Amino acid sequence: MNLQTTHRFDIGRSIGYSHSATVKLGDREGMLFLTTPGVGVDPGEELFHYKGIENTWLVMFDMDGNKLWEKELPDGVLPGIWFRCAVALDMDGDGYDEIYFINNTGAPFSFMHRKLQRVNALTGEVTGSWPWPWNTFHDRMSLCYRFYLVAGYAHGEPVLITCQGTYGDMYLQGWSGDMQPRWDVKIPMDTFGPKASHVTPVLDINGDGVDELFWGERLLSVDDGHELLCLAPDYDGHSDIILPYLHPETREWYIYTCREGGEAPGKPRVVTFRPDGRVAWQALSDSGHMHTGWCANVLDGYGKVCMAMRQHFVPDDSGFEHEVDGIFYFDAFTGKEVDYSLPYPGYLCEPIDLDGDGYHEFLAPDGKVLDRHGKQIASYTGTPMRMGKLTDHSGEQFMIARGTAFEIIADTDARDGEIMKMRYAIPYLTFMQKLMASGYNAIGSQISCGV
Ligand SMILES: [Ca+2]
Ligand SMILES: [Ca+2]
Ligand SMILES: [Ca+2]
Hints:
The chain has a 4-stranded antiparallel sheet with strand order 1-31-30-29, with no helix packed on it. It has a 4-stranded antiparallel sheet with strand order 2-3-4-5, with no helix packed on it. The protein has 3 helices and 31 strands. The relative contact order is 0.13. The chain is mainly β and 451 residues long. 3% of the residues lie in helices and 46% in strands. The structure holds calcium ion (3 copies). One calcium ion binds next to loops.
């Protein structure tokens, strides 16, 4: 393994809370950054702190590291993923993605001045502006300011999706290429059923030419917003992790979920579904906030393991701490607990197939890179902030922030094997890189390791 910086994007100022998404620029690509020198904030009433907040910059680069443009956003745009998100999508079909993001020219909690804006990816010019829906205006703060932007394709047509709310009332709107409203749905809090997730996979899992948005344990059509399938009609809660993955031999899909809320006697906290709603396996009944999870190919013969981390909140003098009280490893296809461990807690290790051989390596604490057996095989410096298929290099790559620059790190010795080629065959692998600056998609490889 030979880890090298293959791309460098120097923004020329210190880097704090940041996100990034891949942008198509004709036959080239570029990288969009939403970055602040300061901290990130969360709308949760017990979590929001204003100390350390600084303005967000939108910065656009080509892949040669040339800054195309940058703009400082107004101080009404709070630097948190639920307030500040963006997607790249070619809605007008000219071969260049536009950038859609949520701007706010008013006070930080304003509804009146919050808007969806469209920006020309090459120039930074604002080319459209639409009022942001007031749907969650009457909710409490934690539910009020949970916004997502996602996107997908319906029979080749791009559909932009704007969303408000999770945990409570949830509202989603689809937009056609000419930014005409296409559909509008509400999933009410008082209707028993799943309440979204912190990650938003978009994938045509039933192969009918229309992408499905995995809205928690519900599959919504991006074409008209209707619910194709509620995987868990018996579950009334929010799920932190929704992760689709494919069996490399049978080519059958599985959907791994880790649940945050909705605890009930005898009900599982981790469930893996088949795409028709059948339960493939489930585990850990009754209680526990399953906060983090991943899937990784770590067993011989490309066997896949699902990790789940359980935590609980411990109130302290200034808010609360998260205390981890369980880390579990399951065979991804049978649900049997497996005897697997890494030299660090699994939730601190991020799976990524750097050398393209079909087995995952791990980004572990202290800049260590581990192989699937937990042995250190490489190291890096900097803070990982995004991972997956970032460039056309073989294997998968990760992005770090170091000094005033973002860098893409790749294994220059990587060679793509059969599993990696299988991943390329699914548009999910590269399409999700456009959605990395929305929700928690960028974290933990939930989105990038489908096969
Ligand atoms: Ca375009
Ligand atoms: Ca479909
Ligand atoms: Ca590998």
